[in-house]
């Protein structure tokens, strides 16, 4: 059946601000769905309150509503657009589904004659109501773990008595495993049961017999109106049952599943999807498999929507699940749609992988002091990385290199744990760094059988680790001179970085690079083609690997490289890597705009990034996508292969900026602001000297590189003192100290975590107002795109502050100083592109806190509030294609826009929730108000000092 011609106008519900458990994978799926519907000439109306995403860009939908996600907003939009025929709620995560259900219960869709597409309400209710789901599964013959529902404390106690321990408690209608927990012993049960009942919006929990040590798998399915079903991807969790899939290390395709069991699992998944409702769209199904000969399969849950895993599966296979799901929702069938990558096969053709994918989550526990760092049923990660390799070992290494936690891969960097008890503890209570700890355990000589017994990780994975360690051991017996070509090639094929090999033989990274270059051991690039090269792929989506040389019958020696470098002018945009607190989706927004603007200027665009959740790694955003770690060795090889005009670093947050020094040293052109200017702004001491020379006020300060120097500085400055390290993002390591003891403790701790750092000690301006400005500069002209005033006082990180655009309480004299200082600093730093400057205002005097000549977190917010594509303009300025004076700026905003931070403290119940100079928010929403009499503004303003911590 072709497209349903009755559907002319569709409302899409977004997922709102980013929280732990619901991140930018829904920005990616929502963006794909919008683009997919517009291809069919359908009018799209979007509601989403997140200003940082590409999804809410005016170019994405015909009408974008940056409104709170509630039924009041839905009614306003439906009144404004009576032409809306249908709502698609499956692209915005649990938030969108919950809102859709609430609107349905209130009769809103019926009142406005709006059809729900992509899922049916019954399917959502069946899958969310664990009791209904269980009954249905048993009816259709799908095995489930023994479980029962409790909607009271007493009922919960009865169930526990019947099942015995260990147990699993899961709260109904929650996201990211909120309220879920393992209960190993009776004395913990009361507290965890109460918490589960409180967290569930309907005060209901499901209590399961715990399947400790079983293996966990996920399948991604798509179904059309003709009941055709395709399985896009099978994902195996390296971690056994008991760790939320969002916190698990996962591998695709499944590695340790027998074909017979896989076929049974496929049949069960299809049977489950067909039984929950009659709808066309996507589904994610999770199973547990017993780790014995029988391989018994038990169903865990099914989600009738695109999910975190479907974003991963899309990037893993190159099959755009959300795009196809949107087409199915409007009536197309799978056999009527093209495979987007081959263009010659149909979407009914199931992807085949001739490579291995490894996903590793990225955590931010350092932001939540006192948090429980062990992993369990409640998701705690803030982002993830994905890597592609020819083998599990290569992909695992590339994924660990993508994490940006100062590790070069597994082992071979001198940073592993060496204490036996600590290693056993970290394996027993799944720790966030267990991917490294397994290697440390093998290195220490702990037998694989013991590691398996503790972790229940399949022996196949552990043997892969052991092989890596044995290779490290062998290479360590060589010197750089005696190292053979075969050994270097084997190490590279197993994913070891040059830096690691250099560590093994005791030489510099550059010497290894040079040696393998001379020996002809070079990276080659392979296509992600969805069909194991059975058909030609049309889409330039690549990953790197190492291959042995092949000799042709004619005697020619070659290595197959599928990425052909064109002779066009090219620009490389460095992505921002995994999401984390302090560097989120707003930098992905900037990268995508940077790519699109470079394309408009006639360049071939090349994107390098490793984040599977984002729009920048969609296969049709840039002309070429390299799904690779944002890690020096990989980047340098791509640059040598592609020979671009230059590299854009100022759009990818601290990840890309950190690589500016290396690029500069290797003579690679940085587009826009030079490395010297970027470095000057990052080096706290040099920047303060620049301010001094330009007569710009700043708080009294001094720099220190040791604890002794810091204590000497404290004698000259008055407490409180703000301590700040150089070259960090999100206020990492910043703290206000009020006496010498606190100062010494913090400085010692900082220098242990960030050795050789230059610390800046500022006299903290107590009670000052904080403001910030973003501007575009071309080296001669400066245009301020927005000035924001923070509602909270100075001392709370700008990412955690409610920021108001335009300012609500700054007089003309203060505003003029802000404008003057911004112009002066932008020009003094030789800025070409974007710059963000932060100010503290005390007694009508404007002091400078810091300046960052790069894209900032607030640029997308200002662009959405004023309706102007500022990143597009800034990129054209960076490329030298335009001057600031060439643009006709027409910002439009009635009233005020407020950037409101969103926190995920509920994932860490015992953590101190006070705010300070180090950022803790995971996302943000935008709130528009007509004037300052608005109750919401009054409420924010009255609470502005509540959370301030020294």
TrEMBL record:
<dbReference type="GO" id="GO:0004087">
    <property type="term" value="F:carbamoyl-phosphate synthase (ammonia) activity"/>
</dbReference>
<keyword id="KW-0460">Magnesium</keyword>
<feature type="domain" description="ATP-grasp">
    <location>
        <begin position="134"/>
        <end position="330"/>
    </location>
</feature>
<dbReference type="InterPro" id="IPR005479">
    <property type="entry name" value="CPAse_ATP-bd"/>
</dbReference>
<feature type="domain" description="ATP-grasp">
    <location>
        <begin position="688"/>
        <end position="879"/>
    </location>
</feature>
<keyword id="KW-0665">Pyrimidine biosynthesis</keyword>
<keyword id="KW-0479">Metal-binding</keyword>
<dbReference type="GO" id="GO:0004088">
    <property type="term" value="F:carbamoyl-phosphate synthase (glutamine-hydrolyzing) activity"/>
</dbReference>
<keyword id="KW-0677">Repeat</keyword>
<dbReference type="InterPro" id="IPR036897">
    <property type="entry name" value="CarbamoylP_synth_lsu_oligo_sf"/>
</dbReference>
<comment type="similarity">
    <text>Belongs to the CarB family.</text>
</comment>
<keyword id="KW-0436">Ligase</keyword>
<protein>
    <submittedName>
        <fullName>Carbamoyl-phosphate synthase large subunit</fullName>
        <ecNumber>6.3.5.5</ecNumber>
    </submittedName>
</protein>
<comment type="function">
    <text>Large subunit of the glutamine-dependent carbamoyl phosphate synthetase (CPSase). CPSase catalyzes the formation of carbamoyl phosphate from the ammonia moiety of glutamine, carbonate, and phosphate donated by ATP, constituting the first step of 2 biosynthetic pathways, one leading to arginine and/or urea and the other to pyrimidine nucleotides.</text>
</comment>
<keyword id="KW-0464">Manganese</keyword>
<dbReference type="InterPro" id="IPR011761">
    <property type="entry name" value="ATP-grasp"/>
</dbReference>
<dbReference type="GO" id="GO:0006541">
    <property type="term" value="P:glutamine metabolic process"/>
</dbReference>
<dbReference type="Pfam" id="PF02786">
    <property type="entry name" value="CPSase_L_D2"/>
</dbReference>
<dbReference type="InterPro" id="IPR005483">
    <property type="entry name" value="CPSase_dom"/>
</dbReference>
<dbReference type="GO" id="GO:0005524">
    <property type="term" value="F:ATP binding"/>
</dbReference>
<keyword id="KW-0055">Arginine biosynthesis</keyword>
<keyword id="KW-0028">Amino-acid biosynthesis</keyword>
<dbReference type="GO" id="GO:0006526">
    <property type="term" value="P:L-arginine biosynthetic process"/>
</dbReference>
<dbReference type="InterPro" id="IPR006275">
    <property type="entry name" value="CPSase_lsu"/>
</dbReference>
<keyword id="KW-0067">ATP-binding</keyword>
<comment type="subunit">
    <text>Composed of two chains; the small (or glutamine) chain promotes the hydrolysis of glutamine to ammonia, which is used by the large (or ammonia) chain to synthesize carbamoyl phosphate. Tetramer of heterodimers (alpha,beta)4.</text>
</comment>
<dbReference type="InterPro" id="IPR016185">
    <property type="entry name" value="PreATP-grasp_dom_sf"/>
</dbReference>
<dbReference type="Pfam" id="PF02787">
    <property type="entry name" value="CPSase_L_D3"/>
</dbReference>
<dbReference type="GO" id="GO:0005737">
    <property type="term" value="C:cytoplasm"/>
</dbReference>
<dbReference type="GO" id="GO:0006221">
    <property type="term" value="P:pyrimidine nucleotide biosynthetic process"/>
</dbReference>
<dbReference type="InterPro" id="IPR005480">
    <property type="entry name" value="CPSase_lsu_oligo"/>
</dbReference>
<comment type="pathway">
    <text>Amino-acid biosynthesis; L-arginine biosynthesis; carbamoyl phosphate from bicarbonate: step 1/1.</text>
</comment>
<dbReference type="InterPro" id="IPR058047">
    <property type="entry name" value="CPSase_preATP-grasp"/>
</dbReference>
<dbReference type="InterPro" id="IPR013815">
    <property type="entry name" value="ATP_grasp_subdomain_1"/>
</dbReference>
<dbReference type="Pfam" id="PF25596">
    <property type="entry name" value="CPSase_L_D1"/>
</dbReference>
<dbReference type="GO" id="GO:0046872">
    <property type="term" value="F:metal ion binding"/>
</dbReference>
<keyword id="KW-0547">Nucleotide-binding</keyword>
<comment type="pathway">
    <text>Pyrimidine metabolism; UMP biosynthesis via de novo pathway; (S)-dihydroorotate from bicarbonate: step 1/3.</text>
</comment>
